[in-house]
Design a protein that fits this description.
The protein has 15 helices and 14 strands. It is α/β, with parallel strands linked by helices and 432 residues long. It folds into 2 domains: 2-71, no CATH class; 118-359 and 395-431, no CATH class. α5 (118-125) crosses α6 (149-159).
Length: 432
């Protein structure tokens, strides 16, 4: 959609093909990008997972509309949208009445929230030196909403954040705009995707972020409030709301209450994720990643690192995305599992290498249309890959795509977060 709008602005006519279930999303995105009207040919949904002759029939039926729009279509509305931000909205009433009005206007996401009064937002703004009107995200997908420092403070206030949380929230916003994060896909996908924010460095203790028992849960105020605030940015500012813009087939509570946890550096036998990404241990860093729901790895029996890795490999041995796509996954080892591995001499690199070679599934799980479409391709490691082959495929393209952190407390449960997108890390201190 962004490409077609760009071509239109250059004076090159385009036609967008969209299925019936996605027309509203296409219109909202187009308008948010500044095109109040755009040529779109609508085809009955779905096109995937149906016989090729049915697809051909649908396209042939739509061809007259496609030809007409390519040769004769003219916009019915002229001009472009000019997204802006209103600093003040005056509402009167009780807390419950204000919450009801916010829900009616699409400014709340179904959970209770604190009304973002002027005094409360100003209090949040004191947590950063950046000016309130600074635009920190010029277009939050899918409706390309404008996010300023002040609007972020309002979302943070609604979620119960404190002023000291603002630099971390601003760093998350910066990380989500990195192309590796591919946030626009997460905001509109049919998949059950949410966001994972991993925090390292001195800021963990400064904010009292949870990193031990229950670190990925909601009991801890900073973790819960930060995850909720970013969910409000997505839903309210970005307009990523079902059923028209957020197209998640089933979705998850984590789509609003995003995962926020800190690495348990005190009980980790290895360098932190941030240090592995080139940061200093003295720097406060947040890493953002689009993830699917995690897999719980409960192993109470393995006494050796080899036995534990054997079990982990089978737990994560699934085709989360098409074969060998360059998308990292996150293995969050609990301290006891990490200790078992480290005591037997396993480094992070050795763990990654073992899992890459042993967490594999047969290429034959993919249906023939996936091969025809080129979703699974041969490469130097697998030159003879073809449809029907039983070649064992790794869950990621290369061992380095397995990110390893240590988090959680006592008990022998680790988490595995698969995900179809990359990850991006940002320093927090520039946003203080």
């Amino acid at each position: 959609m962004r490409d077609s709008v760009g071509l239109e602005r250059l004076g090159i006519p385009t036609l967008t093909l969209v299925t019936t279930s996605f027309t509203r999303l296409a219109r909202v995105t187009s308008e948010g990008l500044g095109m109040v009207d755009q040529a779109m040919a609508v085809i009955p949904h779905p096109l995937g997972g149906i016989a090729s002759d049915v697809v051909r029939s649908k396209v042939q039926s739509a061809f007259p509309d496609i030809l007409h729009d390519l040769t004769e279509w003219r916009p019915t509305r002229k001009g472009t949208t000019a997204p802006g931000v209103s600093r003040y909205v005056q509402l009167r009433g009780s807390v419950s009445e204000v919450q009801a009005e916010f829900r009616a206007r699409g400014w709340a996401a179904g959970l209770p929230f604190t009304p973002p009064t002027r005094d409360l937002v100003d209090r949040l703004l004191a947590g950063t030196s950046h000016p309130p009107d600074e635009v920190v995200w010029a277009g939050v997908p899918p409706r390309m909403g404008v996010l300023t420092v002040e609007v972020l403070a309002a979302c943070a206030a609604m979620a119960g954040c404190e002023p000291q949380h603002m630099p971390l929230l601003l760093a998350i916003v910066e990380a989500l705009q990195d192309p590796n994060s591919w946030y626009a896909h997460q905001a509109t996908t049919t998949g059950t995707e949410s966001l994972l924010f991993l925090v390292n460095g001195p800021v963990v203790r400064e904010l009292d972020l949870a990193y031990g028992t229950g670190a990925a849960g909601l009991w801890f105020h900073p973790n819960a409030a930060i995850g909720y605030a970013m969910g409000l940015v997505s839903k309210v500012v970005g307009g990523s709301r079902p059923p028209d813009q957020d197209k998640s087939t089933l979705a998850s509570p984590a789509d609003l209450l995003n995962w926020t946890l800190a690495e348990n550096a005190a009980e980790s036998p290895w360098n932190s994720l941030a240090v592995e990404h080139g940061f200093l241990s003295s720097e406060s860093v947040v890493t953002a990643k689009v993830v699917y729901p995690p897999i719980d790895i409960g192993d109470h029996q393995s006494e050796t690192g080899a036995d534990l890795l054997h079990y982990i490999a089978y737990c994560i041995n699934q085709p989360f995305v098409y074969a060998m796509r360059h998308a990292p996954v996150v293995l969050a080892l609990c301290p006891e599992h990490a200790a078992t591995l480290a005591n037997d001499g396993w480094s992070k690199d050795a763990i990654r290498d073992y899992l890459w070679h042993n967490a594999r599934y047969p290429a034959s799980v993919y249906a023939e249309p996936a091969w025809i479409a080129g979703s699974i391709k041969a490469n130097a490691d697998f030159p003879d890959l073809r449809y029907g082959a039983v070649t064992p495929l790794p869950i990621v393209a290369k061992p380095e795509d397995i990110a390893i952190i240590v988090a959680g407390g006592a008990g022998k449960h680790s988490h595995f977060f698969p995900g179809p997108k990359g990850m991006a890390s940002r320093r927090i201190d520039p946003w203080r």
